[in-house]
Amino acid sequence: MKEEICFVAEVRWISLEGGFYGLVSNDGRKFMPLNLSETFRKEGLKIRVKGRVKNVVSIYMWGIPFEIYEIDVYSP
User: Fold this and answer.
1) CATH number at 5-73
2) Which residue among 1, 13, 28, 65 has its CA within the 20 to 30 Å range from the CA of 21?
3) Contacts by 69-76 with C-beta closer than 8 Å and gap 24+?
4) What is the dihedral angle through the alpha carbons of 62, 15, 24, 66, rounded to the nearest 10 degrees?
5) Taking the domains of the chain in order of start, what are their residue ranges?
């Protein structure tokens, strides 16, 4: 089982393959959220997330598949 990770990221609209929301972490890593709630689907929103990388096949050729367990709007 993969270890739980926590990071700050920006929500981004990715216009590939029909479009989807992705997360770009502060250190530049790209994550493909598997369960990003509608509430947080806002271009440019800064969030703090906790979850696990998932080993799944996706139609999107972008980012690391990531399952979110906790999410909050980030304010430094």
Assistant:
1) 2.40.50.500
2) 1
3) 69/4, 71/36, 71/37, 71/40, 71/47, 72/47, 72/48, 73/40, 73/45, 73/46, 73/47, 73/48, 74/8, 74/46, 74/47, 74/48, 75/46
4) -50
5) 5-73
Residue type, 39: T
d(CA 64, CA 22): 9
Give tens-digit pLDDT for 24-44: 999 999 999 999 999 999 999
18 band by pLDDT with thresholds 50, 70 and 90: confident
| pTM of the predicted structure, to 2 decimals | 0.90
